[in-house]
């Protein structure tokens, strides 16, 4: 059963939507609210799988609410139900799965709920699939044993950039300055949105559970359990420095299969590349 919450500051519309959803046997409304702040206060009790949100609400609008929901529950599926069509770009920036215009037609709602059901079922079926990332030598991402193939270079670069920030939120204007500094601001932002969309699509089609979150004009890469050579190197290297255990030092040595993001002319990676090269030189000196 899919647990869902409904949020709309118009009680009549909220009740109508609640009644429409009751016709679907695979979805349970665990909360219906006119006050977005109340939703946030009760979120840990509700544990929703998806949320149906109005956009134009007082105090906290639906876009802002979606961002806050995603911060607490990165896997939540968000569907916007609104009377306005000019929020579509903002809606899909926060990774909304659907955007439905009011008045809601039953057949449109049915199509959206089917889409949500299929996505949640698919995600659960992939829970066991491992993710592997190689940052030393050639940059590669594997889902299971299959490498992800990229049709364009910028989405691949953006993924590596977000990985380098290791779960931290990165301001979208900083991303544009680092990756699209030669473009005008509006063109750079459009290119960023296109690249984010391409990453989401590519990772989803590959069966990867990684997710790019968006909130407060910033992006964050949220990873499932991952085998990442850079993290493994850091762990082994730090233990070797603290304890002097040679086996951990040799483990770190084996993990360093080449320079960080070798062969990529990404200026934002230069300092990190040199930092790891220095760590490797230090490691070799201590080992031998």
From TrEMBL:
| One annotated GO biological process | phosphorelay signal transduction system
Q: Which UniProt keywords apply?
A: Phosphoprotein
Does the UniProt entry include the keyword Phosphoprotein?
Answer: yes
Residue numbers carrying 4-aspartylphosphate: 54
Tell me the function of this protein. May play the central regulatory role in sporulation. It may be an element of the effector pathway responsible for the activation of sporulation genes in response to nutritional stress. Spo0A may act in concert with spo0H (a sigma factor) to control the expression of some genes that are critical to the sporulation process.
Database matches in PANTHER family = TRANSCRIPTIONAL ACTIVATOR DOMAIN, TRANSCRIPTIONAL REGULATOR REDD-RELATED
Output this protein's name.
Stage 0 sporulation protein A homolog
Query: Source species, please?
Result: Desulfosporosinus acidiphilus (strain DSM 22704 / JCM 16185 / SJ4)
